[in-house]
Predict the 3D structure of the following.
Amino acid sequence: PFGSVYAIDDLLKAGPEPDSKTIGNAQGLYLSSSQDYSKFTIVMCVDFGFTEGKLKGSSFSVFSRNPVTEADREVAVVGGRGKFRMARGFAKVKTSHFNATNGDAVLEYKNSKRVNLQFITMGSYVVNLFLNLTVLPVFLVQGQRRKKMVKATLVLLVISLVGVMQWAKSTNAESWASRLEAEKENVTNLQFYFHDILSGKNPTAIKVAQPSADNKSPTLFGSIMMADDPLTEGPDPSSKPVGRAQGIYGSAGQNELALIMAMNFAFTDGIYNGSCISLLGKNPAMNPVREMPIVGGTGLFRFARGYAVAQTYWLDVTTGDAIVGYNVTVVH
Amino acid sequence: VTRLHFFLHDILSGKNPSAVKVAGS
């Protein structure tokens, strides 16, 4: 059903059997996004959080199209927190079991993520070094076997390496694509306050979806809010405005107050006017400090990756109004 | 590079579904 939205808080398990060990939760939203009724395609905004072993407390975020009816599909991992801070990658997804009557499914995920990939891909000299490390041992073994002369081998290596570098550069060129030298990266730290007002005549966040009335979840599981929240320099609402936080957040936890946040922070102050950062991840709002991944940006923050550390400054438990301090670190 | 392999259990049926529809027909 095109346009349908599902809130999920699915268990992640080590095996396909329902009684296999639970290792985490997938919390977030599935958006049915294809008008072609012969296919069921969703867009996922989901935090995959782990609760066991070394990955306990770490999660990665998937923001991707998922053509569910295809046998093998791939989804994009756009960020993470904890051990997966700054992660980028992908997951191969396969349906392990599907009950067409009730829609229950078990899905097999095989993930591959590179952490801090920019240190490999940025800068041609690093790329060449990477190539050298993979090519060198092959030349070395061949050279020793043929000539048994270490000196001659080293000369051959130097000549070969120059050739490899030239080849690597020349093969980058295509008529429809070009590869540019990467510029130096910057690290920017931002500190601002987020004002989320649900009460009064002019709320900055409004409920746009919720489960059916008979679903009385204590954590408001499935409720989705659309927000256009002011960002200010200090915690006082009348302090200098620096931008707006626009997007959606929804309750994605059945047993905890966990918000899946898909928000864009658009800045309006100084040199940052017109620049944005995108946040996608889980916000366990009752925790005093929580980390969420920054997965992209525009303007000065093009290519941004990083993390936001949020701390509630003030909360009215009756209305839900809150002022939250954000400390954001981005590499861009 | 970290590789993970796990299974996601998406349950729409029963009294405690892990996924619920919140908008749409």
